[in-house]
Amino acid sequence: DQFPKWNPINRETNLGRLQLRYGDALDAVDLFVSTVDPGKEPPLTTANTLLSILAMDYPVEKLNCYLSDDGASKLTFDAVNETSGFAKKWVPFCKKFAVEPRAPEAYFAQKADFLKGQVQSSFVNERRNMKKEYEEFKVRINHLVSDFQNVPEDGWTMADGSYWPGNNARDHPGMIQVFLGPSGGKDVEGNALPRLVYVSREKRPGFNHHKKAGAMNALIRVSALLTNAPHILILDCDH
User: Fold this and answer.
1) Among candidates 164, 195, 166, which has minimal Cα distance to 181?
2) Worst-scoring range by mean pLDDT, 4-13, 65-74, 85-94?
3) Is 68 annotated as a binding residue?
4) Where do the coiled-coil regions begin and end (predicted)?
5) pTM value?
């Protein structure tokens, strides 16, 4: 008797209209990305995750990306540095032409007609140039990975010759580096970029660091001081 009275309703969020409707009322978001071992989690994969976040269709002043490197790897740090440089080219390209997906590896690998829906005459040339830029970026990342196969006897050093604090992954101070953001430069078209922060929490022998849960707690404390967004989204480095 009840079945004929049912009136099922399907609701779907229209993401394309979200910013148009709410605009400046959108809340800030802190996105947490976690990684530990670049040998098991390739730096190029992590880089693509970061690039897709930085290119999100969201107000840049309300978008903050934090990478937790729980292995204190100099390779991961250098890869993030390279990624921040490439983001200055990739982010404006994505937003100018509304390309999807916004991870460059997935975008350039797709077999679909990349011209579908494109009306700007400059798209073909700019896409070709961006693909070349990405291939050069991949080579630089691959070069970093190759260089880090042989660990120096005295450990890694930084660009200024100082000792890399994370040479002992189980005994090192905390490290925080802001790569992009209000004081981190603009993209190639002069626009602001979302904040990108590298974090490797302090570790000392004899303490239980609680693995990923501990790493996320450290990011919560760092982000509370820097951005303190009301919303947090946690991602793995291969999302």
Assistant:
1) 195
2) 4-13
3) no
4) none
5) 0.88
